[in-house]
Write a structure and sequence with these properties.
Length: 69
């Protein structure tokens, strides 16, 4: 993989870890400053720091589906 390409790794029952060269935007097209080259994006929907993960998934017992159900 090239150094500048983004890589996304879904953690079991946790966030999506994004590494590399990426942009995060709001639905309105506004750029969200990630502030770093690696971020964890919330999948549980309960993070107080959305779109970033704050660890709430652990406290609420979030279970991610496989997408194949």
């Amino acid at each position: 993989m090239e150094d500048h390409a983004a890589r996304i790794v879904p953690y079991e029952d946790g966030p999506l870890l994004v590494r590399g060269d990426f942009e995060i935007m709001t639905p309105d097209g506004e750029l969200i400053d990630a502030g770093r080259k690696t971020v964890a994006l919330c999948r549980c929907g309960k993070s107080a720091a959305k779109p970033f993960c704050d660890g709430t998934h652990k406290a609420i017992g979030f279970k991610a589906g496989t997408g194949r159900d």
